[in-house]
Structure prediction request, 996 residues.
Amino acid sequence: MSRFRIKDQHMWAFFVLPGTLLLVLVLAFPASQSLLYSIYPEGGGSFFTLANYSTLWGDAVFRQVFGNTVLFVALSVGSHLLLGLGVALVLNQEIFAQPLFRLIALLPWVVPDVVAGIIWKWMFDPVYGAINDLLIKAGLIGTHVQWLANPRLTLLSVIFVNLWRGFPFVMLILLAGLQSIPRVLYEAAAIDGASRWELFLRITLPSLKKMLAVALALDIVWEVRRFGLIQAMTQGGPGNMTEVLSTYIYKQYFQFFRFEYASAVAVVMTIALLLVSLPYIWMISREE
Amino acid sequence: MVQEQKGRWFSSTETYGFLLLVSLFAIFPFIWMVSTSLKTEAEAFRVPPTWIPLKPNVDAYISMWVKKSFGLYFLNSTIISLFTAVLSTFFGALAGYGFSRFFFKGRRFLIGFFLATQMLPGVLLVGPYFKILSKLGLYDTRTGLVIAFLTICLPFSTWMMKGFIDRVPDVLDQAALVDGCSRFGVFFRVILPISAPGMVATIIFAFLLAWGDLLWVICLTSTESMITVTLGIARTVGEFQIMWPMLMAGALLGGMPAIILYLLLQRLLVQGMTAGAVKE
Amino acid sequence: MDWIRKISWAVLFLGVMIRSSSLAGAQEKVTLRFSDWHLTESPWDKTLADAMAIFEKRHPHIKVALEPVSYKDKETKYTVESAAGKAPDVFHVHAFSLPMFFDKGFAMDLTPFIEKEGGNKFLEAWYPLCIKLVMHKGKVHAMPGDYMSMVLVYNTELFKAAGLDPKKPPKTWEEFLEYNLKLTKAPEKWGFAVLGAKDPGFELRFSPFLWSFGGDYLTPDNKRSVLDSKEAREAFQYFIELYTKYKVMPPGVTSMNAQDVRTQLAHRKIAWEIGSGWTAPIVNAINPELKAFEVLDAAPLPVKKNRVTTIWLSSWIMSPHTKHPKEAWELLKFITSKEMELNWFVNNRVTSSRKDVNQEPQVQGDKFAKVIASQLLYGKVVPQIPQWPEIIDAFTTAVQEAFTEMKTPEKALADAHERINGILARRR
Prediction:
């Protein structure tokens, strides 16, 4: 027994503070420095102003970018969820070669998103690409499809690649969650004559709620920040069809050198994200 | 009978059919990558593209490994990613445990804070990070990169681990405490072993997050000796040409450590599953 | 406390040693950090490394540490490093980046060094336009490097196959269209391709259209856009219709970058493109079977109202935070010397911003370089203002919208005109 008896209820500090300290020192300070840029005027000057915010509010391109981001994130996260959950459910059974299938399903995540973007861009190439080649050989299409040049298809193509790249994460989390649901629960309900669907709704989903919230919250944040993939595939084009907040901020900062404006957009992005994730934070931190 | 239904949601056809489709979907680009990595540069540009290389050769691999010292990139990436993954998972588990079991003032705010730190675009952070690391003399070092990555991976690890630790029933903690165990004892001897599958998942993902980063590595390193695998691959996209076979070879080789890590740890992933169920 | 005394003496002794060694440091090795994206591509990487070895031999007390950087990330890296005062001592950028780097104070004023070398006489070795481009507020802040003009690079065999005389490339843009119609046999091959992705190479290839038709981007004082002029609209329409109406360009233009275009040329999918000295070697590397150096030829760009082409300049910056300005200047002088510039040409086929190099037989004897050098006199540059990247981005957006028929060419151009005026109005 140690000389000091710290009350058990105060022990949280030892667990939580090391991480918090690291984040505050190495992340919060530099971040706030950068974000403060946003209230300085473009082109220099040392007075505070909200001009950057009114600029972005009035900019039609910003509105388009914001809309693109919402669409991109919603479809990406939604597709990750559907496919990830589906694969997790199937893999949760006792099947032949389960480890092999699990490994295969994890493979896309092994490729960094920039590299995935470069490779898929080439595969989507209208003339040299593997995809058009296969589809034509299989007789599914007649002429070469412009996956990334046709404005109607571009965003969908990017989301498709994002699905390929991103579903393993959701799948693995949900699989881990599924595998710790005790079989007893299912057996008991099955005896009562419940159907597959009812078992899913009444036992699986509720048990998965917390893991789902974790997976969703993280995935939403990540997809809003998704940069390398989109930059490699389209650079936001054609026109501004696939320009999202992350590529937009990158352009403003590193190509146009509009540091102050970029900060303002980043602030807006962060606040929007915070608002969206509030329900998840609330859910995760709920007391049992 | 219920016994037959045990462990089976879907019929065999449904199950294997679906898995086959998903596998094709996941693997298809890799087939293309392997095929291209075995071609000559000229053949990589053929129209229509060939799937089976006409003159298969491992030149691309040799070039990457020898001319571009891929081995060094590997070493750097592995060290950096491994340290980041382990450290962030460990501290994430610590914080996750704290958030899971204790309900202190400002808890919800801190949980939100951890997630909020993930929301900042990397673009804004690289500038200040560069300044800080330079001042600390950690610019262009592996340590500097680990610290930078830690701040990205830690919030994520905390959230993941909290989710997994939440599943471990509180009764186990209480039982151990009653037996005279300290809180840390509970953490190390009860919680960690049971949430092993969660830790494995977190380590793998944190590893991949650090491994796949490009923006930070570009801005926080400058010499040849610090290049990571991902940066090495990005370099094959030059001003004038893309060396496709080398790029593919690099991407395939670059995925190996993560796969090996997964294979090594995956037994833990399964092992802890049944232990996660309620025990008497 | 005997050990304290011992330690104090040791510390004192060490201190004296360190002090005296730094006094003797006048002869110590100076390490210069040199960064260039060419270090990541062959054959440039070898040429540069060899050159640095020569430099080190001539200056035994200087060591050059090479810092490669990937092409598309160089601005990112240099911006971050410069903002923290830790940029490499000497680094290589495109001329179009210069206004921004100058604006933020990331480039050293080289006037004192130039004065020592002979001032204006020293600067006479370079084309006047190149010197103008590296000036900021009337003072030279960077050294010019590679200097090339955009020309037509065409496949003589495809010309013959279409019944055209390879010795008679088109003189006007009208002829250009006629030739294209003869050369196009979709979907096997097309006449012409140009990059349509958002890429710095776009303005190099589009600007001659605009200027030759008599239009321009901005007023001479760079205060307002003149893209609403009749000439600008004509040029824009002509350019877009090559794709949408006459279909002499292969599909998918907006996702094509320069490399895709060169690949098309290498595979005989197109008969010509707008390129420069780098074109033939790359095409040859993509498809050796084409025998690019024999089959391809170069010609000046066609003309509508006046002869004009875009020039492309690269330049070297010395970081204002360098700790070794004298040595860095020696390095700058070395890499932009006649000897080295000629070396770059012989090994990498890039023409120089030095007039004397372009007169050398090696340059004049190369069929591509001869044409390129001859067009340097008609070179024009895009406005060198810090807002330019944003402006050209808005313009390229309009081009993409018109190519994909999201908007009519008139509307796309008009919208870009509005937007660009908005961007210009913002500044001070």
